[in-house]
# Entry
Amino acid sequence: MGVFSKHHITVSGNPDGQPMLFAHGFGCDQNMWRMVAPRFSDDYRLVLFDHVGAGRSDLSAYDAGKYASLTGYADDVVRICTELELRDVVFVGHSVSAMIGVLAHGTAPGMFDQLVLIGPSPRYVDDGDYRGGFSAQDIEELLDSLDSNYLGWSEAMAPVIMDNADRPWLGKALADSFCRTDPDIARQFARVTFLSDNRADLAKVTAPTLVVQSRQDAIAPPFVGEYVRDRIPGASYALLDAVGHCPHLSAPEATVDAMRAFLRS
# Structure
């Protein structure tokens, strides 16, 4: 199966430009980048895709064994770059895809020129002195709720994740995205996402990296973003005056400005 059909890859922008690969977060698809990606079309070759199980990806390509860890998703990223012959890639990953990008870079470090990690979390569960923002019980309750009623969970959680009560259409857009994701695949992806621990992988990153953080984020609070910044050697940090876990939707201008400042540096 070709990667184009497997991941519903779309390519746009400057065909001669440096490739910029966008990877969406849990419950989302490449449409989540619609407010940010076009802003880089003059200078970059834009490559967007859907993780298997999301958006318009080929659901028949889903393999529960392969995708039982984030490594399976990272392998997909490397394969996309390999088959499209992408080099010196600027990887832009949101939420769980931030760690997927870290893992992909670890597999093929020479493939990636820069990493932009938006709302990253290497571990959601608190562990000793480490604060991920959730207790183990919090995560189990979240996953149990998702298992028992995925659509109800989506409707309830999307506004919390987006956290822009004055703009309810943003929460609805995220809920609609959740509801377009295959529920069975989403349940397993949620477990893989919220139970992962990629703290040890951060120190292995050698590419220049930008951590983009909202000042208020219920999923990956600022202290998590600071942890990622402090453990990736030489990482830059942009704390946006934004609310919610999806600043590329709720604060696209600030997100673009932070990315441009980093890419010019």
User: Anything to note?
Assistant: The longest strand covers residues 209-216. The chain has one domain: 3-123+197-264. The beta strands are 10-13, 18-23, 44-48, 89-94, 112-118, 209-216, 236-243.
